[in-house]
């Protein structure tokens, strides 16, 4: 590489920057993500329909929640199926704080993250203490979800079965109530950017490597000095807190919440799981790419192709999941990586950066 | 006091006594071989020493501290690392990342960890596969990767569990050289091996286990001629002691 | 609480429990042989009930007579799903297996919803309100028949598994896949068979539920969750455990429904589930620690 540099006179900082990014798959993924975010940010210039903007907003929220799940299930491989628990807790925290105590949702989001994170600690500790592995962990989270749904159905303070409506007032910034869709889009994109950065920093750090090691082989990781209990808990807590924040924003946007709506496996699949899986579980770009493919496509299917006939979005999600697992286990990002490797090999003399999620 | 003191450890699984009152000690920089028939309890002993099992009886002391019952990652942090008989790479991670996980044992810094990993990879002659995913490696390289990961944790002792199993003669020779070089760095080694040539050429002392109990201990030449050992394990085959 | 009410609750609980037992037997059979948790299991029950719906609304056939047809149809579907999809992920990461089955479940719900709409349906058979009174208790005919049918089916399945060659082959595979292979058993075929039977049995349970039962495409999900509870309670892979567990949970739910109300009775099962997962994950018939 050094020889090439000295030979080439047009070797400026820009070229070096490109080399630094494009020869590194992780960084390339981030580049792709930021380009996508940029595109979304520009969308309001071209799209004026509130319907389509609404889809993009939801896609962005889904991407953020997807990142939170990616950190737990993708990085450490823990089968925390019902991540929606934390979204629900975050959502309820935010709406209760606002409706009853007039706490600004901006603050409410942070508290939601905190509360959800605390609940994450409890879940993680119980799981570790009682050695709930693999399938049992998955079932445990589902049981928790059903239990929470039932409890919230009966809890009058949070509205019980009737649910809670967001106390809408006139639009105001500090109440996170806006007349148009655009501000919601930008907040959602802001969350996505934060999520991407957090995800990236974790991935490149010691913690990230330890997460991956735990996913690949827990015993081997322990033998190399990894405190698996600690890091598994950390992953769950980080994921839970993020999902809580995402849940808080979600409820501010949809302005309504009720237990069967939010503590629901169908919504869990749609918001939490579908995006990262289709995009590529464990990758950096997966959650965002997946969410952007998912939500709009499902909506179009629901609307255009089947004239709104019931069940079509379920068919889409189900088919997506099945097809992805069968033919594209590494998701769209995996396919992108293959193309990336081909391009790098074809046009440069370098070896492309590996994808840490290659199926064996 | 020896670097590693194993005193009378015992492990039972239900009615089966896998290891019974086993004692051995390992000095700094020493290489000790642990041999015995399959099922003799060697890996169980390793599991106890490295923290994967808790001994039912007995103690294990490392650098004067009792480590029996401590978690494996704590034991590793203290300076004792083990490899696995059936190698356990991190399949989807690159060779570099595999070793970096080990290197992070002593540092939190990414650059340091990466540098150390690359140094060790070079030391083991694996530079040409540094970017490959572990799952695509050959058996010989996987065995080396196992050693690389252990080395990266900067240990004082490495427990090598059948590092030579499945290797061709040339590869075995390379591994023997490698192990010698590791030992030269001052790291004490406890080797479990079935390939007698390896044990004879590397080990300064040999401990023989049968049915979970120590039946002999001594220098390689003496062990070869020990009647109990021959009956239990070696058989009447001639061993080339010159190795 | 008077003795009549007490026993009535038990009877109602057993009737429901019989259905749970069938569903759980199907799930535990699949788990025991294929070692995967069928996250789409409840959907097969839902399919069974919709097959009954079709049979009745199109051809006027009584749901109980539909049972053999439902069995065959869903058996075929189950075997197909196993062959085409599940077979490929048997050795993959559990997360992939779970996601695949969740996806299949979603597909099935979506398809049913597409063709039948999400509106609740029901079939009303002439005898749906018929009741027998005995010992001071009331037995709804439809549920009584369903109960005995589920007992009989469980019994015959048990005989099949223990006294026929194929049944023994299935049990062999559940104990050791490799040993079974070495004995000349076509393990892959057993997989198709088992998944098919597991799905079909559950569909039969659905058909048994059909008379006067509210049918919506998403009804399978709550049965999936109950099936998980029962199977874990009865020890994963254990036939008798699933059978007894189903009855136990049925009765527990009946009492919970009486004291807490219908919409929250599930909490009792969830509590039991969580307690079992924490303190006795191997279930009633397993060793202390799974």
Short structural description:
With 243 residues, chain B is of the alpha/beta class.
Number of strands of chain A: 2
Strand numbers in spatial order across the main sheet of chain A? 1-2
The CATH architecture classification of chain B is 3-Layer(aba) Sandwich
Could you give a short account of the major beta sheet of chain A?
2 strands, antiparallel
- Count of alpha/pi helices of chain B: 9
Overall morphology of chain A: globular
Q: Helical proportion of chain A?
A: over 70%
Percent range of helical residues of chain B? 25-40%
β-sheet strand percentage of chain B: 15-25%
* Major sheet attributes of chain B: 6 strands, mixed
How would you spell out the order of helices and strands of chain A? HHHHHHHEHHHHEHHHHH
- The sequence of SSEs of chain B as H and E is EEEHEEHEHHHEHEHEEHH
Structural class of chain A: mainly alpha
E-strand count of chain B: 10
Rg measurement of chain A, Å: 21 Å
What does this protein structure show overall?
Chain A has about 350 residues and is mainly α. Chain A has a domain at about 35-270. Chain A has helices at about 1-5, 15-20, 25-45, 50-75, 85-100, 105-130, 135-155, 180-205, 205-215, 220-225, 230-255, 260, 265-280, 285-305, 310-325, 330-345; strands at about 165, 255. Chain A has a two-stranded antiparallel sheet. Chain A is globular, with a radius of gyration of 21 Å. The two termini of chain A are about 30 Å apart. The relative contact order of chain A is 0.17. The model of chain A is unreliable at about 1-5 (pLDDT under 50). Chain B has a single domain (about 5-235), classed as Rossmann fold (3-Layer(aba) Sandwich), CATH 3.40.50. The model of chain B has no long low-confidence stretch (mean pLDDT about 90). The two termini of chain B are about 30 Å apart. Chain B is α/β, with parallel strands linked by helices and about 240 residues long. Chain B has nine helices and ten strands. In chain B, helix 3 packs across helix 4 and helix 3 packs parallel to helix 5. In chain B, the strands form two sheets. A six-stranded mixed beta sheet of chain B has the order 6-7-8-3-9-10, sandwiched between helices. With about 290 residues, chain C is an all-alpha fold. Chain C has one domain (about 5-115, about 125-280): Orthogonal Bundle (ABC transporter involved in vitamin B12 uptake, BtuC). Chain C contains eleven helices and two strands. Chain C has helices at about 5-35, 40-60, 65-90, 95-115, 140-165, 165-175, 175-180, 185-210, 220-235, 240-260, 265-280; strands spanning about 130-135, 135-140. Chain C has a two-stranded antiparallel ribbon. In chain C, helix 1 (about 5-35) crosses helix 9 and helix 5 (about 140-165) runs antiparallel to helix 8. The longest helix of chain C is centred in the N-terminal third of the chain and has 32 residues, at about 5-35. The termini of chain C are far apart. Chains A and C meet through helix 7, helix 13 and helix 15 of A and helix 3, helix 4, helix 9 and helix 11 of C.
